[in-house]
């Protein structure tokens, strides 16, 4: 049978993958490691925790607002768009106050709630409220700017309201005895092997070999181990429950050996080292990653096999979190990896596979402690409530100051803008007076008829089907009584003083005089109608 791609033969009939490759589903794959590299976690989230996290989904907000620059850009664009809209509205026609553009400009002037008492005034005049279109424009613009700056300030308060402070102090025995953690070291040999190749650890070595503190103890006295088959290879887990800071170095060794027609080879190691406070599963400090076969200086794929030790040196150092009720965590770090026997060429690997003395992979976990010092971690607030309120007040004053300066400059340089509130009120007043006069004129026309309003109809030339003709017909009112009331009510004098809609400017009509004449005419009408009723009764008696 032929060997798969990236493989070679040894012992005449056996197939093995090239250096740096391992067998997966009858294919030799090159191990490239983890693209993320080594990941270190402190066990405590770097994000500040506050009460809004239980109500709002801040992750989606952070994705939209990655920095304060986004909030400031949105604010600037909104202010510019509002000013451009107000400028475009001023270009529209006024049309005596009847156009839509004038109504929009009028409502913009009603928004002048900030600068209504800060407009241009001559000397020795009483300060009054003046709502102008320019003031309304700048009032809304200042509000938009203040809201945008306030949002940026709140973003800073939420994201960067505190800083993390690290302090290092010398450690003594009572401090070290207070660190009780659950440690777990998971080491995976990247290969096509299984747990049946494993010859597990039986002892643990304490101290430094060759020195007076060198000791050998059974592994079960300090910790336990287990093996689990994974898709990447066998994983050896060494666990210690309720461990204290080790005062001396610890050495734990295990081997993978050859099985019939199944040699012991590995192309790399994957590790996951964790530590958590005993009885607290919420905070877990860890370090994880992979040791690639091509991570050597010559950048060549490697296959680990042989009697020399592959040493993974792990260092532990204690961390005390003052801001989390004196949480004590041991931070593990993979400080160094010392490669053992390995092969980078096919010929050397073939010779090793054919040599029974190389039929093993020695792995040693070297655990040391940096227990001379303790790292104390605490958080200090960058800004308190007083500073936040002071910043809000400063942003408000800044927003008003910018547009107040623009308002003063515009009204000082353009004299037309000084009295634009009075001009808009006059236009709106004339428009309202015109509407009222039209209502009054229609009331007079439909009440007393069109004879005295239009001389052409006085001669009797009423258009067929008109409202006046229908009102004067005999079917609408009693013949004698209605004619007497109509004739008496239309005696307004020698000269007809009620103008027509086409001949008189509504803006110039004195409404008071028309109202007074209407009162006099109504009085005369009542007297005339009573006199005519008396004559009619006397005639009927006779």
Automatic annotation (TrEMBL):
Name this polypeptide is given: Uncharacterized protein LOC109725938 isoform X2
Q: Which organism is it from?
A: Ananas comosus
- Alphabetically ordered keywords of this record: Membrane, Transmembrane, Transmembrane helix
| Bias-annotated ranges (Polar residues) | 484-500, 518-528
Entry keyword annotation includes Transmembrane helix: yes
The organism's superkingdom is given as: Eukaryota
- Disordered, as annotated region: 478-542
Per UniProt, what is the name of the gene that codes for the protein in this document? LOC109725938
Q: Which residues cross the membrane?
A: 70-91, 138-158, 388-408
